[in-house]
Amino acid sequence: MLFLLTGDVQIGKTRWLGALADELASEGVAVAGVLAPGVWRECGPHEASGERGLAGEGRFEKLGIDNVLLPAGERVAFARRRDLALAEGSFDPTSQSAAAQLAWEISDDAIARVNAHFDALARGDALRTHPENPAHPENPENPADPARMFHVKHSFAQTDVSRETSRAGETSAGLLVVDELGRLELMRDGGLTAATALLERGPASGFPHALAVVRDWLCPCAEERFAAAWGGAEVLAPDERARALVRAACGLSA
């Protein structure tokens, strides 16, 4: 079964998925792939927002995006808001994200690291070898990262996913997660190409189910590209109905 988790920006898709991954792993389901938590800064009471605006009821400004590689829990600094990257001198005009004129500066090196992770998943390597105590390093440019406050359950999920999936031999109903598919993947055949290759293959013995996060306006592109390989796709919002559907697909009661 292929699930497409969709909706507008900053509605909590990644937080919802992180909590679900934690829940599934605690019940013996192997969860692997990538989660994309935001990097946030708490704003002062009279502080103006950046060009991407505020999230968290006006308390936080989104600075960037990390990628957390599951099941090991390795954290990769993935994207920086474009205006900040320009101001800081980290903007690369030759990057894939620059060529696509994205609002985020995405490191090509980070893309390569995440693709290598999905390549390892395709071989089965990433499920056989991962640390017992995965590290979740703070962003060096934002050591007091308010994402810790904004994603408390999500951070907990990352730790439990890695520990529980090491014992997940009792079930084959694994879940591949891809957070997220964007313009690079769906409109330019770039970005996380190893992840899209896995999705194009359809169900595998280790991962009979997959869940990909995609913006609502890109969801038709994702359905057209991947649904046939999976015998269709179920479009989800981050809610209780979606949780019940994914649990049922993985052989768990609602």
UniProtKB/TrEMBL annotation:
<protein>
    <submittedName>
        <fullName>Uncharacterized protein</fullName>
    </submittedName>
</protein>
<feature type="region of interest" description="Disordered">
    <location>
        <begin position="127"/>
        <end position="147"/>
    </location>
</feature>
<feature type="compositionally biased region" description="Basic and acidic residues">
    <location>
        <begin position="127"/>
        <end position="139"/>
    </location>
</feature>
<dbReference type="InterPro" id="IPR027417">
    <property type="entry name" value="P-loop_NTPase"/>
</dbReference>
